[in-house]
Structures are given as structure tokens and as C-alpha cells.
Amino acid sequence: MAMEKTFNAAEAEPRLYEAWEQAGAFKAGANAKPGADHFSIMIPPPNVTGSLHMGHAFNNTLQDILIRWHRMQGHDVLWQPGTDHAGIATQMVTEREMAANGEPSRREMGRDAFTDRVWQQKVKSRGTIIGQLKRIGASADWSREAFTMGGAAGDPDKDSGAPNFHDAVIKVFVDMYNKGLIYRGKRLVNWDPHFETAISDLEVENIDTPGHMWHFKYPLAGGATYTYVEKDEDGNVTLTEERDYISIATTRPETMLGDGAVAVHPSDERYAPIVGQLVEIPVGPKEHRRLIPIITDEYPDKDFGSGAVKITGAHDFNDYQVAKRGGIPMYRLMDTRGHMRTDGAPYAEAAAIAMSVAQGEQTLSENEADAINLVPDDLRSLDRFEARKLVVDQITSEGLAVMTTATQKDDEGNEIEVTVPYVENKPIMQPFGDRSKVVIEPMLTDQWFVDAEKIVGPALDAVKDGRVKIMPESGEKVYYHWLENIEPWCISRQLWWGHQIPVWYGPGVVDREKLSWESDDLQSFCASNSEDALAKALKYYDEAGWDDNPNFLYEVEDRQTSKGLDERTEVGIWRDPDVLDTWFSSGLWPIGALGWPEETDELKRYFPTSTLVTGQDILFFWVARMMMMQLAVVDEIPFDTVYLHGLVRDAKGKKMSKSVGNVVDPLEVIDEYGADALRFSSAAMAALGGVLKLDMQRIAGYRNFGTKLWNAARFAEMNGAVGNDGSLPTPTATVNKWIMGETAKVREVVDAAMAQYRFNDAAQALYAFVWGKVCDWYVELSKPLLLDGDDAMKAETQATMGWVIDQCLILLHPIMPFITEELWGNLGERQKMLIHADWPTYGSELVDADADREMNWVINLIESVRSARAQVHVPVGLYIPVLVTDLDAAGQAAWDNNEVMIKRLARIDSLSKTDAFPKGCATIAVEGGSFGLPLADIIDVDAEKARLEKNIGKLDKELGGLRGRLNNPKFVASAPDEVVAEARENLALREEEADKLRAALERLAEIG
């Protein structure tokens, strides 16, 4: 049955995908040759409640290209799929749906019931992104799908045979805890007041936001004064005045309540007289006004603002480091909701303690400092931004705002100078939670940490000694920078959805008769389950000689429940309510998804894995942590190659954003253009280290490329050029020898490019070969042989064309799997599907030098004639006479062998030899001779010149404007990067267009 005229992607894609799945084409080891090398990729697990975006489509397309390429080579291939439980995102989605349904809230429901509800949400949502990944043709072994909370309590698929990821995660935590690699401590973290949890840097969006910088006076204690002197760069005194204060500037006045010091640079002479003195925080009840010391530290920039900075260690990351270095107490001001604290003693008592600390009369531990609430009574319970307004009003009303002059209009409209508080209106880089969209608060909290310094060494060595290659190389520098300056890794989150921390607490034992409920004295019991934790606790209390009653110990819900027991006869231990950060569990993805700690067959066969394809934005958050964790847990690298790519941007290089309106939905692209066009576009823009610009016009062009291939296949089918059994033809005709050589060349280029992860080079080589060499030249050049040749020549050409079309399908399949598989099935009876066809190994032995030279000579001549005609607007269908001089024997033979085809394709009426070209000829140089096109009498030379000169003049104006912008340092420095890049791209395009017009003008000058 004849092929359809067009490829119906919408109908064919789901049908073909189902056929692959039913045939087991994606299974681990499918199509593997005996003794083959293994090749494995771990999918970067998408959020279980997520949906496909362009980043997923691009990333997974590159993985699928590699997987299909290796599978066709007969390697033992596994593409391991799975999803991430995505703690904060999944909890958010679930709570949002619960609210929409009118269900009880999380807290009303309770932890166990809520966790069961999230499992329901997971089951409901899980198939969404998996189904969407299938739409782009992802050929992962879905039968092995893993989940980063698989096996946890409540998992409905617990007995399905999927990896028990939960037990693996808990085992690693316990082992690392016992080795001293995990600890609990107080540290500054990104705190999301909406979700009431710590979040990672990756979950923080820094956004330029309109803001204010307030300038305030901190009076010196006891009314002390000093001489404040300012000097210019040459050391000349520009200002001298007696001051009784030091001024600071802040964008967050509410945090002044927690100041522990004011810092100045050691070399700042202005403040040298008052270093070590105490200053008054200008807010709070006057009778309890706190004093803090002036200290020196390298952090303040003496040339920025006043050169003095307030140090609020519990609410600022830079201040935290200063406080740690200087032993400055860190006072936390807010609760988990971002409201000013209400707990603890009244302000008067708290301020008195802080005052004695400032005066050196006592010291506080971190926990003791954290327990003190320094929020004045009238500000307690207020939202942090409401408190900010009151703090500013109180300071200003007391006359402690720095004042400046401003011009205003009086009641009669006259401009007058007035004194006003110094408040700068300026944009501020504000941190927002990427999911909650609320302002993130740096917060000093108790969290669990991995002591990353103790496990980072092997991860650094693995890249330095070449066992792991990061591409592009610039990624290695970033990797080294992060790991060589690594901080403790916060692995706890204040959520309910996730792997609950496997640590239980109980009161410390003071003596046989008394338990301690001080937080510093609590006893920890780390165990894989509650039974083991109770056993450890029993041993501890028995050894402490606390009680002889064997039933005195049991597990309770929380600390408050335990404190309510009769402490003379009962002890209750309770589990840490926090869960592990998803980066901790996903850091174990390579081994966990393969069934570790069980010695599974897949773990033995496919670990260490081969290539990781992921975004450069998670090089530290995920890639580096997988490196550290696998080396720490099993002493093996997780993969040997890391391919990093950037964000997929729009056609102009701008970041996709819903607010901007330039987000591209990959499913809509597939609906309009087909998955193959989107995949080819992904490969074509995947230049190593390049900017990923998604251009819809290019995607449309690649759909047209698929149509071109389809039409060439239809031509082959209509002419009996199908059914190749994989054997190499042995042609005699020059054109057939030539196309086999071209096929061999592109096979080598594609393999070399793929081996070096240059997907764009592979795509470009295939595009040029399939469209240019096969669909255009070979199809046209073969027509005389198919239509007018004898039976032997026709059969030879049919066999050659059938082989060439098949090779096009094989070489294109990893990038364009759907249309190639459809054509493969349409063009003959096959022993197996294209997805498992043998990848070719032929090479330069198929290149016939004589045929190559002759056909390239012919193509060059035809293209040159066409170009010359197009430059000067010769009517497309007009056949013209051509002259030739000095044509050598090889050139003459090439002409004679291909005269009919050359004349038809170049629209040549006749060829005449001449000793010299007459005036009015456009000349064309070829190897071994020159051709002339007598065009003076065919076109209006003067009119063409005028047209070209007019267009060149218009272009020159545009070029002048573009060059002027790009030569302006202010434009280059201040304009957004994408705007500058767009201007440079426009300049290059306009310059190329101008060059073509000038070449055409020169061609006209040659004619006359």
C-alpha cells in the first residue's frame, strides 16, 4: 500500500510509543549484544506533582538521544526513571487542593492523616509528568520507576518491588550520624514564614524590589562625644564636627531590636576614638534602652554609607559571620511565621540580661541567647513589616533619625528648604520563596547538618584526577569553588511530608530521682526505627540507674506529652518532628534507585552510572552532593561524566517568565509541530556551554525538515527504492558511489559529535546531509538513472537509494524517533523495529575519491550558477546560454557525464566554448575552468544597480545606529544582557545582508 502523503504526528506518536512499550524496547538491557559495555543514565527526578516545562523537555531529549544512540550500538543500556517526593512543593499542592475542596487543614487533620492525604495526592499526580515525558519520546525503563520516598509508611506501592528508597535514606542518616558526620546545631538559614520551614538557596528567588534605606543615629552611652573627621582622597580635612552618636543605614529597621554590636573597619580613622565604647540602640522603652559595643571587623566597607554597620547575627548572613568571629550574641526576634516573638520573659527582664552581656558581666551560650526575647512588649506578636513601621516612627519621633535637607513647596507654591529624615528610595535585592512568594527571613534556628568538610575531599579528588569529567570545563571551576569553600549542609526541613528524622529525644538524667528538661541536657537516640530507639533509650536509662521498672519507658507524641508524665516512674521519648531535605534523599539517587543497600543485579551492572545530564543551576545542590554522598556511602563515584546545560530561554535570550508572557509550553509545541521537531530543535541549540534560545520559527523549520524526509521516502517508495536488508550496495554509477561516500562521512561526523556531547554539531551535520545531499541533490541526480537507465542501472540505483534512505532513518532516529520509526515500518518488511536497528560502523572506505570529486564539481557549478542568477534577479524559470573557457579534461568529463542534469537544475539552455568572455558576462570559477553567464541583454542592469544601492543605503543607516549603540560603553554596561546580545545579533545579521548586497552589486559591475 502506498505511503500517505504526509506524516500525521498526532496519530502516529502515541501509536508508535505504545508499540515500543509493548515490545519491551525500553527495558534495561534491551538490544544488548553479548558481553556489551554498559551505559546508564539516571533521570534527574522531576517533582512527583510537577508538569512538563521546556527545561524538562530539553533535558530529557538530550538524555533520550544518548540512550537511543547507545542502545542501537548494542550496549547494555539502562535509563533509570523516577520522581522526587519534593517535600515543600508536594505539601503545598496538597494543602492548596485541600483548601479548594473544603477539607480540614493540615493541623486540624494531624500528621498521620495528612501524610496519608499526601500519598493520595502523589498517586493522583504521579502519572502526569511521566505521561508528558512519554509524549516527547522518552525511552526510559518505566518498569523500574523509582520514587525518593518509596517504601515509606503509607506508600501504596510498597509491595510492588520498586526500590525501598526510604529504608536506604534512613540507613545512610543513621550510619553518618554514628560516624559523626551528621549533627544538630543552631545556624542561620533561609526561613520561609509561609511554610514555616528552612529552605535551600535554590528555593530562593532574589528579585529587585522597590525599597528604602533608613539612616539612624546610635547615641554614645552616657552622653559621650568624639571629634568626627572626614578627609578627601589626598588626606585633606573636609569636615570636622563634635558628635555624640554613630550613624548606620538599614533596609530592615525592625531587626535593630536584635543588634549585638556596631562594626567599623579597623582602618577607618573616623571611628578609632570610639572603638570599644558602647552605643544605645535608638528603639525600645527609654528606661530599658539597650547598649551594644562598637567593634572592628573586615566586613564593613568604609567607603559605603557611613562606614558603620549594625550587627544582627540572628537575621543577616553577613552579620552572622561577623558575630561568630567576634563572639557577639545573636538574638532571634521572630517566630516561625515572621511575627515578632511573644514568648519568654517581659522585655525589661530580657533587656537587663542583654545589658549585662554587653557590659561584659556575663556570657550566654547560643541557646541561652536564643531564649531571650528582646522585642519590646508593645511590638510583640506584630507582623515583621508592621513592626518596621512602628520602629521607624518611634526612632523618628525621638529625634534619632539622621536628617537631611530637601526642597518642598509651601502653601503658596513657593519652593522652600526643609529638614527631613534621611531615607533613600532605592531598589533592593529582596529574597522571596520561589513557591510561597513571601519575603524570606534569615533566621537562626536549630537544624540538622551534614559536616560537609569531612566528606568533601573525595568529591574534589574525583574531578581533579579525571575520574569524573564535568562539561563544559567552566563547570569544573564552579565545582571547585563551591566545594573548596563548603559550609555545613542543612538537611532538615520543618515539614510533615518527607523522610522523618530518625532521632528520638528523652530527658537527660540528673540523678536517679530527677530528669532534666533543659534543652542542652536532652538525650538523643538515633535509630532506624522506634523499636531500636527504645532499646537504646532503655540501655541509657538503665546505665544511669534511673528506674528498675521494666515498663517505665515508651514512645510519646512530643516533648510536652513527655513532660506531662510522672517523672518519678515514667519516661517518654519522642521523635524529632522535622523531615529530611529532599536534596539529602535525591543525593542518594544513583544507588537508591538501583536498590541499594541490597546487592541487586542492576546495582552490579549499571553502577557507577555513565552520564548525568542536568542543569548548571544545580551543580552544587545536587551534582556535588551526589558525588559526596556516593563516595561517603559506597566509596564509588556516581557517574563518570556530567553534562551541564543552562536555562532554556526564548528566541531573544530572555528568561521565560509567566509575568513577561514568554513561557513556552512544550506540549503545545508538540501539538502544533510534533515531538520530532521539538526534539530536533533541542539538539540543534545544545551547543556545549551555549545559550539555549528556543525559536518557534526554527521549530517550524524542523517540522518542514521532517516533511522533506517524508517526501524523499515517498519518492523512493514510488520508484521501488525500498526493502534494503542492511547489506552494503556495490554501485558503479558515479552519483551512487558519491552518495554512499557522503553517508559514510556524515556517520563519522555524527558519532564524533555525539561522543563529545556536541548535540548541535550532530544535528547540523544530519540536517545538511539529509536535506541538502539526499533530499535535494541525490534525489534529483538519481532521476535519470531511475527513469531512463537500463534495468541494471535502475536496480543498482534502487538498491543504493533504499540503503541511503535507511541510513538517514537510522542516523536520525535518536533525535527524531517517531517519523523515522514510521518510515522504517512503511519502507519494507523489517526483522526488528528501528529503535533496535544496528548502528552503522562503516567509514572512509566507502568514499570513492573520483566520484566524490566529480559530483562535488557538478554540485558546485549548479549552485554557483543558481547563486549568480539569484543575485541579479534573473527570472527563475528562464533558461539561459552559458559560455565556458579553459575547461580541463576532468571538468569536461564531469560536464559530459552529467550534462542533462546540470542543464536542467541550473536552467542552462546551451553551453558554448569561447576564447574570452564578451562584455556583459557574469563569471563563475570552477576547478579546472571558468564559466560565463551573458546577462547584459537578459536583465536591466541599471535598474538592478539602483535597487541594490537603495537597499544598501537603507542598511547602512541601520548599521550606523546599531554600531553606535554597541560602541556606547553606557549602553553595554547598563542594558540587560539579553538586550545587548540581541543588538549584537541584529548587527551581525545586517552586516551579513549588506555583504550579500555588495557582492551582488559587484556582480552587476562585472556585467556592465
Automatic annotation (TrEMBL):
It is an enzyme of class 6 (ligase). A motif ('KMSKS' region) lies at residues 655-659. GO terms for cellular component: cytosol. It comes from the Bacteria. PROSITE patterns: AA_TRNA_LIGASE_I (PS00178). Its main location: cytoplasm. CDD domains: Anticodon_Ia_Val. GO terms for molecular function: aminoacyl-tRNA deacylase activity; ATP binding; valine-tRNA ligase activity. Gene3D superfamilies: HUPs, Isoleucyl-tRNA Synthetase, Domain 1, Valyl-tRNA synthetase, C-terminal domain, Valyl/Leucyl/Isoleucyl-tRNA synthetase, editing domain. Residues 16-683 form the Aminoacyl-tRNA synthetase class Ia domain. Residues 938-1007 form a coiled coil. It catalyses: tRNA(Val) + L-valine + ATP = L-valyl-tRNA(Val) + AMP + diphosphate. Residues 736-876 form the Methionyl/Valyl/Leucyl/Isoleucyl-tRNA synthetase anticodon-binding domain. Residues 940-1005 form the Valyl-tRNA synthetase tRNA-binding arm domain. Keywords: Aminoacyl-tRNA synthetase, ATP-binding, Coiled coil, Cytoplasm, Ligase, Nucleotide-binding, Protein biosynthesis. It is found in: Cytoplasm. GO terms for biological process: valyl-tRNA aminoacylation. ATP binds at K658. The C-terminal coiled-coil domain is crucial for aminoacylation activity. Belongs to the class-I aminoacyl-tRNA synthetase family. ValS type 1 subfamily. PANTHER family: VALINE--TRNA LIGASE, CHLOROPLASTIC_MITOCHONDRIAL 2 (PTHR11946:SF93), VALYL-TRNA SYNTHETASES (PTHR11946). Catalyzes the attachment of valine to tRNA(Val). As ValRS can inadvertently accommodate and process structurally similar amino acids such as threonine, to avoid such errors, it has a 'posttransfer' editing activity that hydrolyzes mischarged Thr-tRNA(Val) in a tRNA-dependent manner. Monomer. This is Valine--tRNA ligase. The lineage of its organism: Bacteria, Pseudomonadati, Pseudomonadota, Alphaproteobacteria, Rhodobacterales. The gene is valS.
